[in-house]
Design goal:
three-stranded parallel sheet; elongated
């Protein structure tokens, strides 16, 4: 959803610069500021992590001052309020124009609360029929091809139920079983894997991704 907003032509006409920064679980302000600067200038190596924080902040101010920017902080897991306050204060000091916006994507409601969003959009799980359409597209590749393999379809439907409507989990496992061609044993192995027994939150995709990881070659696992 954030990507669709970010790439929309109406949004592109409204903001300059647009910045997309992948955060993940490493919320280090001294690492994030260079990423923001590079995203704004669309150039790498303008500043490195060894530069002083004072220099980074100065360059951030030069880059964003007076500009109406859109910043997407993608996949944020930081639940440390002080770290978020530090980054927010630096962005406020940069003096972006009125109307600048920050979008944060996260799977943690606590992160959303810490960010203090004006608007929180909680995405619902995919409807059941859409889950199957997405899975079948990845697993069988050709539309309606699953009708030729009713036993695989049955196994696939059981796998989809375990994904709990999470698109990334569905895509991951659909591609995984698709790589096993029409081998029923391979499909059952994925359906019955003990990885599913891991404790998980309702929208946690870790078991699905760990399952995919377990099927990688030893070289690629590194």
């Amino acid at each position: 959803l954030a990507q669709m907003v970010y790439n929309d032509t109406r949004v592109n006409e409204h903001f300059d610069p647009l910045m997309w920064v992948c955060v993940s679980d490493d919320f280090d302000v001294k690492k994030l500021i260079p990423k923001i600067i590079h995203a704004a200038l669309r150039r790498e190596n303008v500043v490195d992590e060894n530069s002083s924080l004072e220099y980074m902040i100065s360059l951030l101010n030069q880059t964003l001052r007076g500009k109406k920017f859109l910043l997407v902080l993608d996949d944020v897991w930081n639940e440390n309020h002080s770290k978020w306050d530090e980054l927010r204060n630096h962005l406020l000091e940069a003096g972006g124009d009125k109307g600048s916006k920050i979008i944060v994507t996260t799977r943690s409601r606590k992160v959303a609360d810490i960010v203090g969003s004006n608007l929180v959009m909680k995405l619902k799980a995919l409807p059941e029929n859409e889950c199957w359409r997405l899975f079948a597209k990845c697993a069988f590749q050709e539309e309606k091809k699953e009708e030729k393999y009713p036993r695989l379809k049955q196994i696939g439907e059981q796998i989809v139920q375990k994904c709990k409507g999470v698109p990334l989990a569905i895509t991951t496992l659909g591609c995984l079983v698709g790589s096993k061609s029409h081998d029923e044993n391979g499909w059952r192995e994925i359906r019955d894997s003990e990885v599913w027994n891991l404790d998980q939150e309702e929208t946690d995709i870790l078991p699905s991704l760990k399952l995919s990881y377990n099927h990688l070659s030893p070289q690629v696992k590194q």
